[in-house]
Amino acid sequence: MLEIIFTVLTAAALFVGIFFAATGVIGILRFPDYFARAQAATCISTMGTLGAVLAGIFYALGNGLDAVWYVKLILIALMIMISASVSGHSLSKGTYKRGHRPHFGGFAKDDYKEDGFDEL
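Request: output the structure for the sequence above.
Response:
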């Protein structure tokens, strides 16, 4: 009975990861400018990967794997979450510095301009 529960949890976590990856891909294809597309791309790498990592943890729990698997999966999730947000921010900051701005309406709050980053 416990194996069935972990199998269902594994499938649900995979479904969540696939859902976020698919909506992120749709966002990349449909969003009008770079900044919106970058947000969709980081959604794929963080939320999609989290679903896959949770599925791996549920699979390891259901099959009685050693604790080292949990540690590895959690470290993978942490590294991807940190690196995706930092790289997305760095790429967006570089794009801003090159003079690109959103197509419709601009930013709600332009922190880069307030920090003097626009004048470099």
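The helical segments are 2-30, 34-63, 67-97, 111-114.
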